[in-house]
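G., the chain you wanted modeled:
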Amino acid sequence: MDNFIVKLISGDIIKITTQEYQNLIKQTNQGGLKGVLVFIPSTNQSINTSSISHILSEEKYNLELREKRGESNKGILHDGTPVVRKFGRYYLLSDPECEVDSTYYKEVAKDCVPTPQEFYKNYAELPQEKRLEAILGTIDDTKRIGQTKQLKDLLS
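Predicted structure as tokens:
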């Protein structure tokens, strides 16, 4: 089942299921209501629809994250090591002569090292062994074929 990402005006993000997305669309479209408080069961919280910036599929969100990562020259590896990217290669921030081993750091091999802001916002609180899985999870774009048709079917 596909998930969706709700981006709020405050910059916060909330992951919702397809069913919650459909309910959110239904509730906000009934009678043209604005500023409706909607309960999201999977997160056990309510959001005010007037605070939503936009909603996009998780795949699209992950693609945007990956593109933003490519624009940054600094990042943090899954074990918390700060790195800097020069000419497409990653080096330790503490020792710019020491190149990072891409066989150990899978996020380097796949060029998906999170930016410092992204790391501290999304991954720092996770246990170290779960961080790599979460970081690499943002690059699973193998299911993108046919996503446009599925999204159109949901909206109709």
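Residues 72-137 form one domain.

Shout if anything looks off.
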